[in-house]
Amino acid sequence: MKVVILISGRGSNMQALLEAGLPVEFACVISNKAEAKGLEIAAAHGVPTRVMSHRDYPDRATFDTALAAEIDRHAPDLVILAGFMRVLSAAFVLHYERRLINIHPALLPAFPGLDTHARALAAGVRLHGCTVHFVTQEVDSGPILAQAAVPVLPEDTQESLGMRVLHQEHLLFPMAIRWLAEGRASLGEHGRVIYSGLSCRSDSALSSPME
Ligand code: GAR
User: Fold this and answer.
1) Does residue 104 have an active-site annotation?
2) 132 falls within a domain
3) Distance from the CA of 207 to the center of ligand 1, in angstroms?
């Protein structure tokens, strides 16, 4: 399975993917920001990198067309958004239908968009987390592949909660991509993810607070 990763910054999720020993070929990492720390990490892992700044293009559609052309040079089976902080045009999403995957730092469909940890704290939810999903037209939406929940603790700040979620992102993302690469999860005809050979304990639960 050939994979192209899109990033915009730190690249810690990308790094988790590169270091997970996945049965995939990482063809290229593309950043829309030249200063993205993740570019150095990708290069250190021997993965080709490319910067494509959206500022060099007159509008979203033109940038997305150019981005797709660059991605398609690698003929990827999967395009992974690992902290790629741009809204994608409908045409782009359609072009990569069924092979575009995103990670989002919240338990979707709760808290799409930005500042998810602050919004979770403000809402008073007792469980928060992260979601890996196929990308569809709406921002941070689409068939869910995997989720991980963490407790929200009374003393949590945005930072402490964000760190707890990020730790889970680094575990969840490689696991979900492995399922896809090994054919243990796929997108069914009706827009729901189908799993095969994955076990699930029906009596397990994470609750918060705990007695
Ligand atoms: C991650 O927390 C990821 O879930 C989030 O950006 C961060 C990137 O960190 N993505 C989104 O908010 C997408 N809506 P990283 O560059 O260290 O992986």
Assistant:
1) yes
2) yes
3) 25
